Amino acid sequence: MNAPYSLSLLQRMHRNLPPLVPKDVIDDFKHALTDIESDPHISQRDIEKTMIHFGSLLWPYRKAYEEFYKNAEARHGDEFMRAHLKDGMKQWYELFKKHGGILADLKKGEFSTITHLTSDERTALSQALVETHSMLQKTTRQEILGSTCEAYKKRVLEFRIMFEDIEARLSHLKLLAQKEKRHPALAHELDALIHTFELALCGVNPERCLNDLEYCADNFHGRKEDRLLYQNAPAGPFFTELPLPSHVNLFE
Q: Residue 100 gets which letter from DSSP?
């Protein structure tokens, strides 16, 4: 296997499917994953193509699930955390909350008070976060399959409409890259950016980079005009701060 990391991401995506994904998508995903796992010569690019294909199909479900998970976290997160913390750590958690901290900060590690914890206390906090996340996942799925099922389905449809717009914009960018013959460096740069967007749909790249999608075509045309005016100018990046794949978030 030439790309174990990419394979592990694909496997995690398959293990953590959101609720109510159609059976045919689940079956196709399983067959594709089995084929990849049995091919010792498969390339990273081929694995990523599979990831992008199924990531795009799953995106509306994943986004809807994330919203319902956050709602469950807002309602039950503190309760679940306290249930998995011992007395000393409960006091620390209450102090953390008193100073404006929220559970999401703990999950991201974005809080200064962590420096006041011993190694054992950090371990206890990490274990409580894992248990809390597991309980929130279970609660969210139970609610989606029960009382909030119709609301979840409606949100999936709304995200599917959003995805159609994203897909149309990506198709337009791909066409621009394919047609660009005079400036191959710009075409290559645009292809790389499209790939970044596609991986964001899978949860591999930060999704905030999708905010740049709206301006990418205009940016490309502007860069192309600049190249025509200044033939000797080097090709710079489309965006000065293109988000890097600094985290992975596949429902875990």
A: T
